[in-house]
Structure formats: C-alpha cells, structure tokens
C-alpha cells in the first residue's frame, strides 16, 4: 500500500495530559478558527493556534511540542476570551511549552526560554525582577540583542530609567495591621514602577494625593511572576500573587490597586484559581502559613480612581482643561481579558480611562485598537514582533488624528514610547500615562508629571497646546 494511504493512528496521551493538568477538554474545539483569526501574533507563527489545537486532539506531538507557536504566544488572552467553547487556549499554549521542557525537548525559540529562566532567577534571588540583572544575563546568552536594541538601551540610560541597585522583596514573617488601612487603598506598584516606569509611579501617587485618594504601599511585596512564571512554573505563578494578597489582607486592606496590567492580571488569575480549586487553595494557604479569606478587591488604577473619586469630582478640580488635545486611550491586553478572570464589564471596549480623561477636558477619539496587543511579552526576545505590532498601533492612532496615546500599563508604554526610534514613522507620537495627563489637567507642578522621563518628549506638544 502507498504510504500516503496508510491509516493515521490517533493517540490521546497529550490531550489527557492537558485534561489532567489544566482541566481543559481539547476535544471541545470544533475548529471555528476564532483563536487564529483574532491572534495579533499569528503572522509570526509556524502553525496557527487552531492547528495546534487540532494537533493536540490527534496526538501529533511532533507538531504540538516542536512548534514555535506556543513559545511565541504573547499571552494576550484574545483567544481565551473569544473561544465559544470557553477553552483556555492561552493556558494550553503555556502548558505545551512546559511539557516540551519536561521532556527535554529543545525550545524552537531559545530566546524566550532563556528570558523566562533569567526572569525567574532574578525573582528567586531578590523577590522582585531586577531589570539590569535580567538584561545582562539575557545579553550574555544572546549578544546580538545588544546591537539590535542599542538605541533602546542608550535612550533608557540617558533618561536614567534603569534602577542601579536591586530592591529586595520579602514578606515579613509576622504581618502587622497597617494604621489607617481600612480607609485607604493598598498600592501595589509592581517591579517596573520602581525602575523603568518611575514616571507612572510618581504621577499616579501625586494625582491620587491631590484627589484625596489615600494609597499605601505595603512593605515586603514580591514580584507577581509575570508571563515567565506561567510558562515555566504554574505553581509559582499562583504562589507569588497569593503571597501578596495574604500580606495585603493581613495588613487590614479591603482593596488593592495595581497600575501594571500584568500584575493586575496575574493577581486576578490567582484569585480566580483559588476560588475555583479548593485543594489548590488549601495547598497555597499551607505554603503561606495563612488561610486567605478572599476579602481583598483587586482593581486597576483607572477603576480605583473612577470608583473612589469619580468623573464629576475630577471635572470640578480641573485647572487646565485638556480640550486642545486629541487623545486615544490604549488599555492593552491584560487589563480586561479574559473577562471571567478580570471581571471586566466590557473587555473589548473598556471606557474607564476614556471617561477620566474626558472629565479632564480631553477630546477622546474613538478607535478600534484599545485592547489590541503591543507584543509586550517579547520586548527583549523578539523585538521584530514588538516593532510590527506597536508601530501599527501608532499609525492607527494617527488615522483618527490623535495627538497623544494615553496608556495605563508600563509594558505598553515601553513598547510604544521607547521603541519609536526603531520604527519608520513619519513623525514621533507622544505616549503618556493617563496619570501624567491628569497631573497636567489638575494644575500640578510639571515635575510631578515627570515628563522628562518619556523617551518621546511630550513637552513640545504640550507647550504648543498651551498646557505647559
């Protein structure tokens, strides 16, 4: 018989492993192709997500475990959000990378594997991500990245956006209640806001203070693990956020706000896991030495300001209306997706940031790219992906005549702001944290907006619009 006519054997070993580890039944997938049609990184894959799902269904491990696709998945959660069968396709992709590593298979995208391992080493060492150490190890393994990204690194060094020394994160052995915690909101800045996104940190705290919103940063918080933990070690991906939530709850807070989209998403994912897996919660509680009561609300910074201050109060306090600025709001992937985890009311069309900036007088333009991925997961590992996705976003913002893109995530800001020198753009586009815009509108001193830290300097535009 001709080999082409040989019957194909179907094995369900890999599908069973997915079921055992994730509780996901891959046979529910009926190839609607929504995951592939909506994937922002699909152009860079060797196999599309629906094809990987089919390979898992058929037991084609030579495809599923050797493909670049799971490694290049940007973890934007678009596929998981849009799957009509409620399959966690992003989670399945992450499982496939771990399964390949456990079997000793070489990664088809070694940059991603090396980055994830370096990231988690920094977290184990310091309790937080130490970005200079992470970048140094990655560059030693991939020296060409230094040449490819020399403009980015030079710009960051000139702006002093890199922390020289690491900051240690270790929860105290015995947590004490924080005075005033019941009337305040815990503030979890995440690793980036103490280094590459200091302008977000300083403008956020200044705006909150001006609006009468008391934020208190708990001492001893640790890194959330970001995407690296989910790909490498799902236990750490849950334990790290739960250490923080246990610390915050024991300190007496009822709410924590998280400016970083990745931090917000990882803590919400950990909460979701604890609420839906009693045995896992018991294991995590035992490891932390504390039975988490699930009394802490995890919020984005836009949610927190919206809820505790409100647009009417903001409008009353505006001293320099932003009515000369056309602004588009960019939320990125992880502030809203997947909605069953983030509890976002409108995951594809969020409006919190729009309403806050409209209250400050800005002309908020409608556009279709609020939650499109910028490729943040590949900032160091695959800058070609980042440049493609991020430059497209800037061009689309230009199409609706935006002057500024407002963001609420340090990872998005890094890609859209710091990498513009590498994009073939007709003109630079200022990328500003929404808190920087609010600081200006509230009439705060220019230094509180920390505008000099932005690599694309927004000050010439703001002076032209008579806002500075």
Question: In summary, what is this structure?
Answer:
With 468 residues, this protein is mainly alpha-helical. It is 49% helix and 6% strand.
Labels describing this entry:
468 residues, mainly alpha, Fumarate Reductase Iron-sulfur Protein, Chain B, domain 2, Rossmann fold, 4-stranded parallel beta sheet, 25 helices
Tell me what you see in this structure:
By secondary structure, the protein is mainly alpha-helical. Among the domains are: 7-102, Fumarate Reductase Iron-sulfur Protein, Chain B, domain 2 (Orthogonal Bundle), CATH 1.10.1060; 302-464, Rossmann fold (3-Layer(aba) Sandwich). The protein has helices spanning 13-22, 34-37, 49-58, 61-64, 69-72, 78-82, 89-102, 110-126, 131-141, 144-148, 150-158, 198-210, 226-232, 234-250, 261-276, 278-288, 301-308, 311-317, 339-342, 352-359, 383-399, 410-418, 434-441, 446-449, 459-464, and strands at 185-187, 215-216, 255-258, 297-300, 326-330, 363-364, 404-407, 431-433. A four-stranded parallel sheet has the order 2-1-3-4. Strands 6-5-7-8 form a four-stranded parallel sheet, sandwiched between helices. It is globular.
Radius of gyration of CA atoms, rounded to a whole number: 22 Å
> In percent, how much strand structure appears in the residues?
5-15%
Main beta sheet: strand number and arrangement? 4 strands, parallel
Return the CATH class of the domain at 302-464: Alpha Beta
Kindly state the mean pLDDT as a whole number?
A: 95
How would the global form be characterised? Answer: globular
Outline the low-pLDDT stretches.
Answer: none
CATH topology of the domain at 302-464: Rossmann fold
What structural class do the secondary elements suggest? Answer: mainly alpha
Strand line-up of the largest beta sheet? 2-1-3-4
């Amino acid at each position: 018989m001709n080999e082409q006519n040989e019957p194909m054997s179907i094995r369900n070993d890999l599908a069973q492993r997915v079921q055992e580890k994730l509780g996901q039944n891959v046979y529910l997938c009926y190839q609607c192709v929504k995951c592939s049609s909506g994937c922002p990184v699909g152009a860079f894959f060797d196999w599309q997500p629906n094809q990987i799902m089919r390979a898992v269904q058929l037991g084609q491990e030579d495809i599923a475990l050797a493909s670049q696709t799971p490694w290049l998945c940007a973890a934007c959660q678009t596929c998981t959000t849009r799957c009509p069968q409620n399959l966690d396709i992003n989670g399945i992709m992450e499982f496939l990378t771990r399964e390949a590593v456990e079997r000793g298979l070489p990664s088809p995208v070694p940059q991603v594997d090396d980055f994830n391992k370096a990231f988690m080493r920094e977290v184990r060492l310091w309790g937080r991500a130490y970005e200079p150490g992470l970048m140094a190890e990655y560059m030693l393994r991939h020296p060409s990245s230094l040449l490819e990204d020399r403009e980015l690194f030079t710009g960051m060094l000139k702006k002093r956006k890199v922390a020289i020394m690491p900051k240690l994160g270790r929860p105290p052995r015995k947590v004490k209640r924080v005075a005033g915690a019941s009337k305040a909101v815990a503030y979890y800045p995440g690793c980036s806001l103490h280094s590459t996104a200091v302008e977000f940190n300083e403008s956020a705290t200044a705006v909150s203070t001006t609006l009468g919103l008391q934020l208190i940063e708990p001492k001893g918080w640790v890194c959330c693990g970001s995407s690296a933990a989910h790909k490498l070690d799902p236990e750490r991906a849950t334990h790290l956020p739960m250490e923080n939530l246990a610390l915050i709850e024991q300190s007496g807070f009822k709410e924590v706000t998280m400016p970083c989209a990745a931090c917000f998403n990882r803590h919400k994912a950990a909460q979701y896991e604890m609420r839906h897996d009693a045995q896992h919660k018991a294991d995590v509680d035992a490891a932390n030495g504390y039975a988490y009561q699930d009394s802490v609300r995890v919020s984005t910074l836009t949610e927190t300001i919206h809820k505790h201050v409100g647009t009417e109060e903001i409008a009353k306090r505006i001293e320099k209306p932003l009515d000369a600025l056309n602004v588009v709001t960019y939320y990125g992937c992880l502030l809203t997706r997947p909605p069953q985890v983030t509890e976002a009311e409108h995951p594809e069309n969020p409006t919190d940031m729009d309403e806050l900036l409209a209250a400050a007088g800005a002309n908020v333009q409608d556009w279709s790219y609020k939650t499109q991925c910028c490729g943040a997961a590949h900032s160091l590992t695959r800058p070609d992906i980042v440049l493609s996705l991020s430059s497209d976003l800037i061009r689309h913002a230009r199409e609706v005549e935006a002057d500024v893109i407002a963001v609420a995530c340090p990872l998005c800001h890094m890609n859209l702001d710091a990498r513009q020198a590498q994009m073939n753009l007709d003109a630079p586009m200022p990328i500003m944290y929404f808190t920087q815009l609010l600081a200006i509108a509230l009439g705060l001193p220019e230094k509180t907006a920390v505008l000099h830290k932005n690599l694309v300097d927004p000050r010439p535009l703001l002076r032209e619009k008579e806002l500075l």
